[in-house]
Amino acid sequence: MALVAELSNRWSAIDPHEFANLGMDLGAVGSFGRIQQISDDPRWALRIVSVTENGRLVAAVPIFLGRGDRWTDQLHSPEAWGGPPPPPLDECAFIGGRQDVRAGVHCVNRPDVIEAARDMCAEMPELIGRQLHFSYYDTAQRHLAEQIFGSITWQAQFDEYAFPAAVIHGAPADLPKRTRQLLRQDQRRIAEAGISVETSSWSDHDGHAAELIARQNRHKGLEDHAELVEYRMELWDECEDVSVHVACDQDGLAAVTMLVHRDELEVYEIGLPQPDTAYRLELYLALGYHAPLTLARAKGLTRIRMGMESGQAKTHRGAVAIPRFCGFATPFPR
Questions:
Q1: DSSP string for 186-252
Q2: 179 alpha-carbon distance from chain centroid
Q3: Alpha carbons 292 and 295: distance in angstroms, whole number
Q4: pLDDT digits (tens, 9 = 90+) for 107-162
Q5: Residue 140: what pLDDT?
Q6: How confident is the model at residue 255 (pLDDT cuts 50, 70, 90)?
Q7: Measured between alpha carbons, how far is 96 from 170 in angstroms, rounded to an integer?
Q8: What is the pLDDT of residues 54-86, one digit of tens each?
Q9: Topology of the domain covering 3-159+324-329
Q10: Element (H, E) at 66
Q11: How do beta strands 153-163 and 320-329 pair?
């Protein structure tokens, strides 16, 4: 069957349903609506290497060519991964994604498709001499990237944590004893603290969660403001294939935002009160763990993505670690 490889600079040339069916296991951040959004940024020039087979999409590799000389992203600068300072932005490109904590090449794992994508990338004059960056790839995507772009220096590994269906929907008696005991202990502590939680859509929320989240991010050393939180969540709310939810306690002391895409939920951002606030831990347990579990059960979802922090606490409660890798390559010399 004939494969056709093409290079374009707009997503309108890609069928969103066929893109979704590539099934790259990236969650909401890999949705068609989201990748369209992050492509609309003047600091980056979008290129898409697509491969079709008899008119059906079998690969769509997003490439973001940097413009200018300043790195402004707090999450995706290679220095944040523990590597050396990168070249100026206009000498770099991000492959697969550039803003979220998961990315991938969106390519069917088939030798002929991989070869067609590889040949098209190698023929791109705009990649010559650029340092290529790969951010937060899982093991399968890492291998695909290596087959398309050659040798990659993987300079950092991070673990993402996720609750599987067995924890969300399984009977407590079927869970490991430690997991079962911790989840029950959480529920007792939340009840004893008198905490109740209400979950609504972001569009119906009164907006106070934004300041809580911004303050929490500043506490972690990130630059953030309530207006930026609102902007981020409004962008997510505009994604047709993602629904946005927010859970808050009855006193408005803490909040968590959650994204639902297809059959999974992602805990996106959380805002907690000051460290010396009474019942701060119980608020964290209620909103960071049990509000997502409650929403996922109500919607029949099969996975909850829990982020990359507090790994021990999450695995003790039944989460599974998913390794993610960050790296760079310069496969195409000047």
A1: HHHHHHHTT--EEEEEGGGS-STHHHHHHHHHHHTT----HHHHHHHHHHHHH-TT-EEEEEEETTS
A2: 26
A3: 5
A4: 999 999 999 999 999 999 999 989 999 999 999 999 999 999 999 999 899 999 99
A5: 93
A6: very high
A7: 35
A8: 999 999 999 999 998 887 776 677 777 877 788
A9: Aminopeptidase (3.40.630)
A10: strand 56-66
A11: antiparallel
- Those residues whose C-beta lies under 8 Å from the C-beta of residue 184, and which sit 6 or more positions away, are 172
Query: Tell me: the pLDDT tens digits for 82-114?
Result: 777 888 889 999 999 887 888 999 999 999 999
Residue type, 44: W
- Measured CA distances, 40 to 34, 37, 112, 235, 261 (Å): 10, 5, 31, 12, 21
Q: What's the rounded Cα separation, in Å, for the pair 74 and 64? A: 17
Helix (H) or strand (E) holding 321: strand 320-329
Beta bridge partners of 73: none
Topology of domain 165-317, CATH: Aminopeptidase (3.40.630)
204: Cβ contacts below 8 Å, ≥ 6 apart: none
Beta bridge partners of 119: none
- Return residue ranges of the chain for CATH 3.40.630.30: 165-317
Distance CA 259, CA 279 (A): 26
List the structure tokens of 25: 């296991």
- 325 neighbors 83 (Cβ within 8 angstroms): no
pTM: 0.92
